[in-house]
Design brief:
The structure is a single chain. This protein has 244 residues and is an alpha/beta fold. The protein has one domain: Alpha-Beta Barrel (TIM Barrel). Helices cover 41% and strands 16% of the residues. Strands 7-6-5-4-3-2-1-8 form an eight-stranded parallel beta sheet. Helix 7 links the parallel strand 6 and strand 7. Helix 1 packs parallel to helix 8. The structure holds pyridoxal-5'-phosphate (PLP). Pyridoxal-5'-phosphate binds next to strand 8 and helix 9. It holds the Pfam family Ala_racemase_N.
Length: 244
Amino acid sequence: MTDRRTQLAANLAKVEERIAAACAAAGRKREEVTLIVVTKTYPADDVRILSGLGVRHVAENRDQDAAPKAAACSDLPLSWHFVGQLQTNKVRSVVGYADVVQSVDRPRLVAALSKEAVRTGREVGCLVQVALDAEDFAPGKGGLGERGGVSAAGVGELAELVAGSPGLRLDGLMTVAPLTGPYAGRERAAFERLMDLSTDLRRAHPAANMVSAGMSADLEHAVAAGATHVRVGTAVLGVRPGLG
Ligand SMILES: *Cc1c(COP(=O)(O)O)cnc(C)c1O
């Protein structure tokens, strides 16, 4: 084993232990939570090692980095999740490799994703990204949170739009614990709020049962609240150099 492989295996084992412990504490089965490793800023070689170690889901947040990485890893049995703010001019590229876009936050993006999915004959899974720091805003008014996302009040309408768009599959909801607003520093409460929104969503769309929440620092809170997917970068790959 190379040093990097040894390091990634050890980190992955630690994260796996954390997820298992959080599931046990919450009385949940380990299989109820899927680990998505966020490989942004790290090279395709790392993705390949992770795949060899059994990782099946990876996530990226910038198309410029993700597209060549996904191409270099196209022989691997991986699902690619796109988790960054997505400009419509990047949709064509992203639909080329992403199985799930977790950052769906506005009608124009839904329209662009649908058009491209239909054009290429692909089905794209979509999560509506909820901005819990935008909770106080009315829909259509300051809807976008600082890190992307639609306000809680706007989730239903956007979800209906996704569900009615050819080529798109409404899979559920995603959030990032907010740094500002009423949920700042209250990850557990934020993730419970997301679960409530998911319960509402599933009344109309029972299959849209993905709840993507929790990162390296707060995955335990997400698992406790009921998340089905956690997105872990740093704890597996190491601290990212610079912004990312
Ligand atoms: C980077 C990122 C993560 C992973 O964050 P870590 O703190 O490195 O685990 C999760 N979700 C999104 C949307 C991200 O951009």
